[in-house]
Structures are given as structure tokens and as C-alpha cells.
Design goal:
By secondary structure, the protein is an alpha+beta fold. It folds into three domains: 172 residues, Four Helix Bundle (Hemerythrin (Met), subunit A) (Up-down Bundle), CATH 1.20.120.1730; 122 residues, no CATH class; 164 residues, Heat Shock Protein 90, CATH 3.30.565.10. The chain contains twelve helices and eight strands. A six-stranded mixed sheet has the order 6-7-5-4-2-8. It has a two-stranded antiparallel sheet with strand order 1-3. Helix 5 packs antiparallel against helix 7. It is rod-shaped, with a radius of gyration of 47 Å. The protein starts with 5 loop residues before the first helix and ends with a strand. Its main location: membrane. Keywords: Kinase, Membrane, Phosphoprotein, Transferase, Transmembrane, Transmembrane helix. It catalyses: ATP + protein L-histidine = ADP + protein N-phospho-L-histidine.
Length: 507
């Protein structure tokens, strides 16, 4: 069932790897930018050093003042230091060659022009003036070489900056596109899974009902979901076994009786299997709900309004499916196993049921009247609790919005049939007579899913609980005026307790 989620998570992993690769590439580009800036700073310093030493040398030649020799000497020292730093981290072999070339040109200028002019100035201004023009072109050559180096370094810096910016843009685009696509795929997978499970579970339920009704050749559809298909195969196997047992009934009366016992046993196995299967289906359903609610909490408002709506639809469908499975479990529990019958005080039982429904009573504004003298009967406490809980709960649920809800619980004894008949009466919306038999079927609803809560299994549970007591369940109703549900419990000699006062439970 989790197979649809493989592709989104693989895509998420690819996005993560791409982001890591992009970050590493951007880090390399950043290092290149930093190194290029450092080299460019050193080249500019070399140009400045050339200007400083030239200014100092010419100032001394022109003025003869010894103070101008200090900038000249400082410029030489600074040039050598900056050249050594740049030589330690050249960008390319060509840059190293150009640096050595510039240093050689400067050294040649000093030998042929710079130092000779300084020595000549110490002797005679006229002699120094005749040497000024010598070497000017050599310094221009040094500057030209350094300028070329600076232009090439500028180009490398620009390329590194552009590479870093492009890498960041690419990483951002891949991240945004990948995350959006992953979220959409996760949402699609969750919606598809929820719809698939709901559709095939409904088909499986309908097929199981037909099989239990005797249509043993009914083939359950293939769903593609491993868990549901395995459940369907088990139903098919059990149906095949039941059919084979039924065929053996034609041999003899003894075989008929034995086959009936086997059929009853198979039905109990089917009910037990339905209970176990419904219980196991809750685990994948919790997985679907958890992932969908995780999507809703983490990405609510980050996608468009339609995506938020799809997430809400998925959560609501998961909740309805959970209710359906829980109701199916309740139905299976009611029909399972041998029941122990003891003396049950129905008045105390009804009080407990009303305490459990207290919130619904308050919300509906209902007035619940419990007639005095509800009897003690021989029955099963859990089954009778199901019966009262479902009937009173339905009365609270299907109320009319035009008037205050009135619910009355009472009991009468039919002497001729030796049984107690319990009545749950309301003034709700009522039921048309044509639907009297239909509402007691499993998963039968007279209203849309969004109108009233529930799965349409409560009355089927109630009828099963009453029939296990050997009683009957029926109703009388008029649309728009209300309904009265009656169920009987055989009287095994229990004496009704007198109750002096009628109790009214109000919100």
C-alpha cells in the first residue's frame, strides 16, 4: 500500500543530492572569487608600488632632496613583498611568467635608468637631467605587463562571480521545482491510495454480502492492493469451502445435518475473519491518515487553495473510512461467540447509556424522559447496551430543526407472549414506511454521507443484539412527526422494580 510513495521520496532524495552538489559547486566558486580578489589586490598594490618608487626617484632627480629617496626605497621593498605574495598563489603558469617578466623589467630599469640617474644627481643636476628620458619606456612596459595581468584577473573574478550566481539560481530552481513536484506527487499518492482503498473495500464488502447470501460463485474484483486482495482470496476460499459443504447436503439427511453444522461453523469463521481483517485494515489506514495530516500540518498554506482542499478531502475520507471499519468491528463483535446471560437492571443500564451520550444530549437540546419501573431481565449486558445506545443515539441524531427534541424510553410487558417490550420514542424527522425493512440492513443509509454522521450499521448491530436474545426489533414512524422503535426480550421471571418518580434528563 505504500508503494505509491516510493517515487516522491526518490525524487526528494534526488533533489537533496542536487542541492548538496550545487552547494559544493558554489563553495568552489566562492573560493575562486576570494582568491581572485586577493590576487587582484596584490596586482593593484604592485602598480601602486611602481608609481611610488617612480615618484620618489624622479622627485630626488629634480630636487636633489634626500627625503625623496625613502619613497623610492619603500616602493622597491613593497614591490618585492607583494610580488613574493602573488608568486606564492598564482592563478595560472602564465600569470607567474608575467609576474617574473614584470620583476625582470623593473630590475632592468633600475640598472639602466633608476639607479644611474640617482648617482648622477649626486654629482650634477645637468648630468642627471640628460639621463631622465632614459628608462621611461621601461617603466611603461612594467605597467603594461601588470595592467594585462589585472585585466585577466578581472576576467577570472567576473567569471567566478557569474558562476556562483548561476549555481545559486540553478540550486534555487531545482529545490523549488523538486519540492513542489514532490508535494504534488505525495498528495496525489495519498488521494489515490485513499480512493483506491475506499473503493475496493466497498466492493469487497458488497461481494462478501453476496457471498454470505449464497452467491458462492461471485468473483471478487482484483484491487491491486495486496492486503485487500489477500482478504478477497480468503473470502473466495471460504466461499468455495461453503459451497462444497452445501453440495454434500444432497447425499442424505445425516449429511444434511452435518453440513448445516459445518456451514454454521464456516459462517462463524467468516465473521471472525471479517473481524480480524477489519482490525488489521486499521493499521494501513492509520498510516494514510498520519501522512496526510503530516502534509496538512507542514504544508498548509504553502500550496494553492485547491491543494489544501484536496488534503482536507483526503483527511475527511480517512476519518469516514476509520468510522466504517470501527463500525464493522462493532458488528463483528456483536455477532461473535457465545454470550453469557445474567440478570440485567435495564434502568441502571439506560442511565449509564445516557451518561455516555450526555454531550450529544446537551448539544441537541433534547429532553430525555425515562419511564419509571424499567424491568430487570435475563440478558447480555453488552448486547443490551448496544441496543439502547444505538436507538437513543439515532433519536438524538435524526432530530427536527423546527422543534425541541423529545425522547422517551419506556417498557411494557406482554403477558400473552411472556416478554418485555422496550420503546424508544422521539419527535424527530421520521421515516417513510417503504424504508422500514431497508434501514435494518448493513451499511444502509437513507441520507447522504454529508447530511448525518455514521456508517449505516447501527440498526443492524441492534437487530443482531436483539435476535441473540430471542427477541424482535421493529418500528412505527410517520415522516415529519417522529419514530418509535420497539424491541422485545423474553421474560424469564424477572420482576420489574417499582419506581415512584419519572426521571427527566435535560441539557
Amino acid at each position: 500500500m505504500l508503494r505509491p510513495f516510493v517515487v516522491p521520496f526518490v525524487l526528494l532524495g534526488v533533489v537533496g543530492v542536487s542541492v548538496i552538489a550545487g552547494v559544493e559547486r558554489n563553495a568552489q566558486a566562492t573560493r575562486q572569487v576570494t582568491e581572485a580578489q586577493g590576487r587582484l589586490l596584490l596586482i593593484n598594490s604592485l602598480l601602486r608600488d611602481i608609481s611610488d618608487l617612480e615618484t620618489g626617484q624622479r622627485g630626488y632627480v629634480i630636487t636633489g632632496q634626500a627625503d625623496f629617496l625613502k619613497p623610492y626605497l619603500d616602493g622597491l621593498i613593497a614591490f618585492n613583498e607583494h610580488a613574493a605574495q602573488l608568486r606564492a598563489r598564482p592563478a595560472t603558469p602564465l600569470q607567474l611568467n608575467n609576474l617574473n617578466r614584470a620583476a625582470g623589467q623593473l630590475a632592468r630599469w633600475r640598472r639602466t635608468a633608476g639607479d644611474p640617474q640617482i648617482r648622477a644627481r649626486r654629482t650634477s643636476l645637468e648630468q642627471a637631467a640628460r639621463l631622465v628620458s632614459t628608462g621611461r619606456r621601461q617603466l611603461d612596459d612594467v605597467r603594461a605587463t601588470l595592467t594585462t595581468m589585472r585585466e585577466r584577473e578581472d576576467a577570472r573574478l567576473t567569471a567566478a562571480v557569474q558562476s556562483s550566481a548561476q549555481t545559486l539560481r540553478t540550486v534555487r530552481q531545482i529545490t523549488v521545482a523538486g519540492l513542489l513536484l514532490t508535494l504534488l506527487l505525495l498528495l496525489f499518492a495519498a488521494l489515490r491510495m485513499a480512493r483506491t482503498v475506499a473503493r475496493h473495500l466497498s466492493q469487497l464488502t458488497a461481494g462478501a454480502q453476496e457471498i454470505s447470501a449464497g452467491q458462492y460463485d461471485r468473483r471478487l474484483p482484483h484491487s491491486g492492493v495486496q492486503e485487500i486482495d489477500e482478504l478477497g482470496e480468503q473470502f473466495q476460499e471460504m466461499a468455495r469451502a461453503v459451497r462444497e459443504r452445501e453440495q454434500a447436503l444432497a447425499d442424505s439427511a445425516q449429511a444434511l445435518q452435518a453440513s448445516n453444522e459445518q456451514l454454521a461453523h464456516s459462517n462463524r469463521e467468516l465473521e471472525q475473519f471479517a473481524y480480524v481483517a477489519s482490525h488489521d485494515l486499521q493499521e494501513p489506514l492509520r498510516t494514510i491518515g498520519s501522512y496526510t495530516e503530516l502534509l496538512a500540518r507542514r504544508y498548509q498554506g504553502q500550496l494553492d487553495a485547491r491543494a489544501d482542499q484536496y488534503i482536507a478531502f483526503t483527511i475527511e475520507a480517512t476519518r469516514r473510512m476509520k468510522t466504517l471499519i470501527q463500525d464493522l468491528l462493532a458488528f463483528s463483535r456483536v455477532r461473535q461467540g457465545q454470550r453469557t446471560f445474567t440478570a440485567v437492571d435495564t434502568e441502571v443500564l439506560v442511565r449509564e447509556v445516557l451518561e455516555h451520550l450526555d454531550e450529544q444530549v446537551r448539544e441537541s437540546g433534547a429532553q430525555v424522559q425515562v419511564a419509571p419501573g424499567l424491568p430487570q431481565v435475563q440478558g447480555n449486558l453488552d448486547l443490551l447496551r448496544h441496543a439502547f445506545h444505538n436507538l437513543i443515539g439515532n433519536a438524538l441524531k435524526f432530530r427536527s430543526p423546527d422543534r425541541t427534541l423529545q425522547v422517551a424510553v419506556s417498557a411494557t410487558r406482554e403477558e400473552d407472549r411472556e416478554r418485555w417490550v422496550f420503546h424508544v420514542q422521539d419527535n424527530g424527522i421520521g421515516i417513510e414506511e417503504q424504508y422500514f425493512d431497508r434501514i435494518f440492513g448493513v451499511f444502509q443509509r437513507l441520507h447522504g454521507v454529508g447530511e448525518y454522521s455514521g456508517s449505516g450499521i447501527g440498526l443492524a448491530v441492534t437487530r443482531s443484539a436483539v435476535e441473540q436474545h430471542g427477541g424482535e426489533l421493529w418500528l412505527g414512524s410517520r415522516p415529519g412527526q417522529g419514530s418509535t422503535f420497539h424491541f422485545s426480550v423474553p421474560d424469564h421471571g424477572a420482576i420489574p422494580r417499582p419506581h415512584p418518580l419519572q426521571e427527566t434528563v435535560e441539557p
